[in-house]
Each structure stands twice: as structure tokens, then as C-alpha cells.
TrEMBL record:
It comes from Phallusia mammillata. It holds the Pfam family Ank. Gene3D superfamilies: Ankyrin repeat-containing domain. One of its GO terms (biological process) is protein ubiquitination. This is Ankyrin repeat and SOCS box protein 5-like. Coiled coil: none annotated. Residues 189-245 form the SOCS box domain. Keywords: ANK repeat, Repeat. Belongs to the ankyrin SOCS box (ASB) family. The gene is Asb5. Transmembrane segments: none annotated. ANK repeats lie at residues 5-37, 38-70, 71-97, 150-182.
């Protein structure tokens, strides 16, 4: 054990991708949710290192998918920070919450330019909201209000970083090029005139997205979206609202 940070052999094996050693340690009774002084779990470290096999092993042994460290980071946040879409997808498919009480996974994925992680998170948020019942949607609404703010400013972030691929990804997911930040500036106004980012946003302004796409995005962060799962709607529409097509 690293005494300074209270890092166990599980943490070291997870971060360095030593899946076989990790499996052995866990089989010998290692605590899958052991914490460092910063409250990082082995799953935090595996996701930070982008070690997909280690993430799989830890999940199979019951790792806490939504553990939060003292800085507000979850394993999902670390996967999005690192740009490991494989780890991100695995966490979400096995039950990790796309929302968090700590730092926003969606925000860091946008800031770092990890398009695949952004897509997976948006899809997971739609599914989570769609399936949530009346007993849980009020709690989700608080978390989603934070994510809605992140989404509102997403194109501004991408424009500032000059990431045209992220701009195109966000636009394809329904982000509005007309949104203004607190200084009443649009994303296009933050780009270099006639650059790739400028042209992508200009084209989006002159070719508005479809009404169907606008409605789907509006429902994603709407407080009553959970009610859609309570009524009898066509399968094709349900899949669309869950961002499955």
C-alpha cells in the first residue's frame, strides 16, 4: 500500500491495466470499493487510465458505479475526462447514472472534445428520464437542471476551443446555434470569421434543424418527460424519444 495516498494494490493494478492481477486480488478478498485519501476507488483509477478490462472486472465484483471522490468526480467523469468511450459505454450500460451530484461528466466530455462520450451521455440521459417514475423524477429534475445549463452553453465551449468536430456533434444532437451566453453572445461570435467552426455554425443558423428534432431535444430536459413511459405510444416514437434511432 502507498501510505502517502492510501493507495492499495487494487488501485495500482486498476490504473495500470493489470486485469489478471486485479482479478486475483479481488478473489483473495480485496475490497473492490477501497478508498484513497481523496476517496478514489479502484474503478475511478481504471476509468482514469482508460483500462476497459479492469473496469469490467471491477463491475463484475460489485464496484460502486457512482462513487464520488472529494473533488466531485465519479468513475464516469474520469472516463469522460480521459475520452475512453468504451469505459463510458460500459459504465452506462451497467447502471451508472448519467447525472451526478458532483462535477458534470457531460461538461468535461465537451471541454475535452470527446464526441463519442458526449453522444453516449445524451442517449443515456434520455433513457434515464424516459424510464424514471413519478417517485424519482423530482430528484432527477434537480440534477437535470444542472445538465441543461451545461447543454445550453455547450456550443460556446466548443467554439472557444475551436473544435469543429465537437460543434458538428452537438449540432447533430440538437444544440441550438442561436443560444446566447450571459454576455448575450452567440457561439458563432466566439469563432474566427470564416474558419471551419464559423462556417459550421453559420450553416446551422441558415439551415434550421427539423421540428421533430427540436421537439425531441426539448423533451430531453423537460420535467414531464417521464410521463411518456406511462402512456401507450408507438414503438418507433418511444425509440425516438429514448434516442435509440
Amino acid at each position: 500500500m502507498n501510505v502517502k495516498l492510501c493507495r492499495t494494490e487494487l488501485h495500482e493494478a486498476s490504473f495500470n491495466g493489470r486485469a489478471l492481477q486485479l482479478q486475483t486480488l479481488l478473489n483473495q478478498g480485496g475490497n473492490v470499493n477501497s478508498r484513497t485519501q481523496e476517496h478514489d476507488t479502484p474503478l475511478h483509477d481504471a476509468c482514469l487510465g482508460g483500462k476497459r478490462l479492469c473496469v469490467k472486472v471491477l463491475i463484475q465484483h460489485g464496484a460502486n458505479l457512482d462513487a464520488v471522490n472529494i473533488t466531485g468526480r465519479t468513475p464516469l467523469y474520469n472516463a469522460c475526462w480521459n475520452g475512453s468511450s468504451d469505459c463510458c459505454t460500459m459504465l452506462l450500460k451497467t447502471g451508472a447514472s448519467p447525472y451526478t451530484e458532483g462535477l458534470s461528466s457531460l461538461q468535461v466530455a465537451i471541454e475535452k472534445g470527446h464526441c463519442k462520450c458526449v453522444i453516449e451521455l445524451i442517449k443515456a440521459q434520455a433513457k434515464e428520464k424516459f424510464k424514471s417514475g413519478s417517485s424519482t423524477h423530482f430528484t432527477l429534475n434537480h440534477k437535470m437542471s444542472l445538465e441543461k445549463l451545461v447543454w445550453k452553453n455547450s456550443l460556446h465551449v466548443a467554439a472557444c476551443t475551436g473544435n469543429v468536430k465537437m460543434i458538428e456533434t452537438l449540432l447533430s444532437l440538437g444544440a441550438s446555434p442561436y443560444t446566447k451566453n450571459e454576455k448575450q453572445i452567440t457561439p458563432k461570435e466566439l469563432t474566427v470569421p470564416f474558419s471551419e467552426c464559423y462556417e459550421a455554425l453559420h450553416q446551422a443558423e441558415t439551415n434550421p434543424r427539423s421540428l421533430m428534432g427540436t421537439c425531441r431535444l426539448a423533451l430531453l430536459y423537460h420535467k414531464t418527460m417521464y410521463m411518456a413511459s406511462k402512456i401507450n405510444i408507438p414503438n418507433a416514437l418511444e425509440q425516438y424519444l429514448r434516442w435509440e434511432n
